[in-house]
Write a structure and sequence with these properties.
CATH topology of the largest domain: D-Maltodextrin-Binding Protein, domain 2
InterPro entries: ModA/WtpA
Number of domains: 2
Largest sheet: 6 strands, mixed
Protein name: Solute-binding protein
Organism: Duganella vulcania
CATH architecture of the largest domain: 3-Layer(aba) Sandwich
Signal peptide: 1-20
Order of helices and strands: HEHEHEHEEHEHHEHEHEEHHE
Keywords: Signal
Number of strands: 11
Distance between the termini: 18 Å
Length: 255
């Protein structure tokens, strides 16, 4: 029964080849693994082609989605951290009616493959692990901003840890850890799991966890808004849940 429902849902997005569109998508790191799994399925079912630009939801790098939009790069759909999307909506750059919630993301820790797995099963264990580490890295997107501005203060270890902490731009944190540049890395779990040479340790404890909701929207300058809405319905629908969960994200109850 479930298979037939999923098939029917996917077929509902199928459109005649004559009306197929090329959609420009901007996608941020945390949703990448789920998107890559869903992209070929959607293209096969709809006939549309998804051309993807990659970048963080925020930050100073030229690849960051707000900076791409500011330069006038084309986008029919943006997929990013929800509160960063809300900023674009407030600036009049994304249609507020198009805002679609996709998944929740939690922060995890990574070490280089082959290294012992530190204990972060409790808040006190996490605190001790951070204090004992030689170097720590986190991203310049939502997870890293939370760690730098809030988590270290909550644990009351900001003064001790800040000097050995590094915010990494563009490159996945787990990749830097895999190369031996940092002892510990923190990023959204969905960005850690695909990286070879690095081992996912665990999510940070729930009492100090930060849950980031990923959402998508349609820029007001989108060239194919109707086709974009079909894509958003697919990404937020039940047929996407399996890929979302497998990527390390948490599907939303209503999707």
């Amino acid at each position: 029964m479930q298979t037939s429902i999923v098939c029917a849902a996917v077929l509902a997005f199928a459109i005649p080849a004559a009306s197929a569109e090329q959609l420009d998508i901007m996608n941020s790191g945390g949703y990448t693994a789920a998107y890559l799994a869903l992209k070929p399925r959607y293209e096969a079912a709809s006939g549309d082609t998804l051309v993807t630009a990659w970048g963080p939801s925020m930050g100073k790098s030229p690849e960051a989605i707000p900076n791409r939009l500011a330069r006038g790069e084309p986008a029919d759909v943006v997929i990013m951290v929800g509160y960063a999307l809300d900023q674009l909506i407030a600036q009049g750059k994304v249609d507020p009616a198009s805002r679609t919630e996709l998944a929740d993301s939690r922060i995890g820790m990574v070490v280089r493959a082959g290294h012992a797995l530190p204990d972060i099963s409790t808040v006190e264990a996490l605190k001790a692990t951070l204090l004992g580490a030689d170097s720590i890295a986190y991203s310049d997107s939502a997870s890293g901003v939370y760690i730098e501005r809030e988590l270290l203060k909550k644990l009351d270890i900001e003064a001790a840890v800040k000097p050995k902490a590094h915010m990494v731009q563009k490159t996945p944190v787990a990749m830097q850890v895999a190369e031996g540049k940092y002892e510990l890395g923190f990023q959204q779990v969905s960005e850690i799991l695909p990286v070879r040479g690095a081992t996912f340790v665990a999510r940070i404890p729930e009492p100090v966890q930060s849950v980031t909701r990923f959402a998508a929207g349609i820029p007001v300058q989108a060239r194919h808004p109707e086709a974009a809405r079909k894509l958003l319905r697919f990404l937020a629908g039940p047929e996407a849940r399996g890929a979302v969960a497998a990527s390390g994200l948490d599907p939303l109850p209503n999707n």
